Amino acid sequence: MANLRQVTLDAVQTIVDGPTLHIKTEEDVEAWKTTQSYRDYSTFLQRLNESVVNYYLPWSPETPARGTVKILALLDKLDQWTEDIPPLETPQRFGNLAFRSWGRRLEEQCDSLLAELLGDGFEPVIRFAKPYLLSSFGSFTRMDYGTGHETSFALFLLVLTLVRFFEPVPEVERQLVLVVFLRYLRLCWKLQDVYRLEPAGSHGVWGLDDSHFLPYIFGSGELRDQTDIPVNAILQTPLPDTNLYFLSISRIHEVKHGPFHEHSSSLHAIAVGVANWGKVNSGLFKMYEAEVLSKRVVVQHIPLGGILEWNPSQSPASDLESPGSRPGQSTQMPPPPTSTSSSVLTPIGPPRARAPLGHGGPISARTANVGTRAPWVASAAPGSISRSGNLEGARVSGSIPNPPGSITMAPPPGAVPPTSFPHTPADSGRGS
């Protein structure tokens, strides 16, 4: 696993330019992919993903990192603001105007919130972290929320990790996903519900999710190396809240009605057409790059510069060496390995664990699965995801007409064989 570089506090104090909006054209999007910040973000997501393989919800660290405790306090405070600033009693289909008041308070108090979060010694970091925190919860002008805002929060965590407010070690990275990101996700769901935020740039039924993407990456990472729970288990509801993928599917069922294959055709296609969680996990990384990081309408709102450097290479992206790659390999975000037991990786965390099949029950340990092949060996294999983000091995449709130029999909299958979700032994520990 590639290491994440460090930006020392001394170096931070010498940086003149802060984050600004650099991405305005399609050429700027491609230029961003040649920057150090893009490589940092790629490495960061890969490390977060690896840290949660075979760890399941609910999960609590034995000793929470100090930064974890402090950022949870920050998110709790932002959550409390929804009680202080209730929605206005006015007829509005989308976007309650009270969200602008919530956002105004965040803008006014952001410096003090970050000073309290970071503490002594990290004061120079505030001006570089502030733009990402401000844009993590939605647009206060358009009153919407989408994957670009979610990406801003991930970049916020990246900035704090580069300066070593968070240490880039598996235990802390696991906390960032299963504790911090989970808390952020629940806060965003609450903001969307309380203030009726509109999905930003939603693809409708053809998108993965109206507002989020990263929970599906991390959730499929949690499930990646086990074989007890098949991919099509998501079609059986209610689902246990034992991983971020299932949690996100349950959220969809709360806010959408009707047949799942109609309102969430991409997720249904993955469920019936992708062979295993390893392929899902690696494919979602490619899809995230194609459908989020490569879309100008999404990334044009992301400020770059300063700690997250804007330093486009003169070389095309395909010729640039990325972390963990060999010369000549593409800088396209690499898919994660299917198993951390690979000879080229240092295993992260304790031995493999059995996936929890109960509703939040504890986990019993078992020996790791072996022999799983990397999903990116043959790019055209069934279940892989193309550069454009379309699932090649996961094609379904309902009564919804295909958009122009889209793939033709097969009808949804009949009944899926049931997956048993028995409770695991009560004396089992966490997913380790």
TrEMBL record:
Compartment(s) where it occurs, according to its Swiss-Prot or TrEMBL record: Cytoplasm
GO cellular component terms, A-Z: cytoplasm; nucleus; protein phosphatase type 2A complex
CDD domains: PTPA (cd04087)
Function: PPIases accelerate the folding of proteins. It catalyzes the cis-trans isomerization of proline imidic peptide bonds in oligopeptides.
Chain coiled-coil ranges: none
GO biological process: mitotic spindle organization
Similarity comment: Belongs to the PTPA-type PPIase family.
Pfam families the record matches: PTPA (PF03095)
UniProt protein name: Serine/threonine-protein phosphatase 2A activator
InterPro entries: Phstyr_phstse_ac, PTPA_C_lid, PTPA_sf
